[in-house]
Amino acid sequence: MLAQDQPVEWTPKAHDLLEAAAALFYERGIAAVGVDTVAQHAGVTKKTLYDRFGSKERLVAEYLRSREEQRRAALVAALDEARDPVERVAAVYDGTRAWAAAQPVWRGCPVVNAHAEINTAGHPAYPLVAEQKRWTRDLFSGLLVYAGVPAEHRDALATQLLALLEGAQVVVGMGADPHGFLRARDAGVALVRSVLA
């Protein structure tokens, strides 16, 4: 069995397990999916799951890490396309929208969904949950520096931009507004331009 501090050996079966777990955890919820179900969907034994990941908690952490890597790659791709400083802020919304659209089904931010079920600091995924939102807020903050937003406005504005992004993920995920990312993008751009005016 893999110890919690050992790196995962990314064999083909480990990848199969992660893929199965990611789909199941996101669609059904973490607590609702047992290791038997994950192993069955991956076509491996429960022993193989424990040999590769050591525990369900570690598998959850790897699922969230994998989703976050995908999200950041989508954001980087969108940011690489944007040259104008304010459009780079907008690109965070565009990248998130593209990432959400690439999912077989969008049920909102996987990290927020996981946070509803993971509320103990001792869980291996807990640091990932907290760090993801900090990272996104810091990304907005850095983009505001690049856009020339005065220092006295940056903290509040970065938090507002993050709140718009989080809200968009919720309303799109719940089916309340399929254009939520575009509306949040427009509101975020308007906020930035109002500070720069």
- Quaternary state, please? single chain
Q: Got a strand count?
A: 0
Number of helices: 9
Proportion of residues in extended strands: under 5%
First CA to last CA: what distance?
59 Å
CATH structural class of the domain at 66-196:
Mainly Alpha
* SSE order, one letter for each helix or strand: HHHHHHHHH
Helix content: over 70%
* Sheet having the most strands: none
**Which of globular, elongated, flat, extended, rod-shaped describes the shape?**
elongated
Regions with pLDDT < 50 over 5+ consecutive residues? none
The second-level CATH architecture of the domain at 66-196 is Orthogonal Bundle
CATH superfamily of the domain at 66-196: Tetracycline Repressor, domain 2
CATH topology of the domain at 66-196: Tetracycline Repressor, domain 2
Computed structural class: mainly alpha
Pfam families: TetR_C_13 (PF16925), TetR_N (PF00440)
GO molecular function: DNA binding
Keywords: DNA-binding, Transcription, Transcription regulation
Organism: Nocardioides bruguierae
